[in-house]
């Protein structure tokens, strides 16, 4: 289960959120008006997502792009990687 936090509070607590992800192994979901916007995951989780590894019984879809930018695919090293979890 991921820890959810509103975007306004996440701005103020970014360093603490990064520590929760890196050292406690948590996943953090940043929300706006109660709806998920982005997720903070560890670099190990990101490697698994990019490598196509999926947890048993779940499908993860990786989408690249920066916010609401018109480009659907961002280049290597760009910001804006997001993952969507779909439970079958």
Descriptive report:
By secondary structure, the chain is of the alpha+beta class. It has two domains: 1-40, YefM-like domain (YefM-like fold); 43-88, no CATH class. The protein is 30% helix and 28% strand. It has three helices and five strands; from the N terminus they run E-H-H-E-E-H-E-E. The chain has helices spanning 7-12, 14-24, 43-51, and strands at residues 3-6, 28-32, 35-40, 59-63, 82-86. The two termini are 17 Å apart. The model is unreliable at 56-81 (pLDDT under 50).
The figure for the number of domains is: 2
What is the residue-mean pLDDT, rounded to a whole number? Answer: 73
Form type: globular
Count of individual helical segments: 3
Which radius of gyration do the C-alpha atoms yield?
13 Å
Element order, helices and strands? EHHEEHEE
């Amino acid at each position: 289960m991921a820890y959810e936090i509103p975007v306004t509070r996440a701005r103020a607590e970014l360093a603490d959120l990064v520590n929760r992800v890196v050292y406690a192994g948590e996943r953090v979901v940043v929300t706006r008006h109660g709806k998920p916007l982005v997720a903070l995951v560890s670099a190990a989780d990101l490697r698994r997502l990019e490598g196509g590894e999926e947890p048993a019984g779940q499908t993860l879809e990786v989408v690249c792009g920066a916010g609401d930018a018109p480009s659907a695919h961002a280049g290597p090293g760009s910001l804006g990687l997001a993952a969507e979890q779909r439970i079958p």
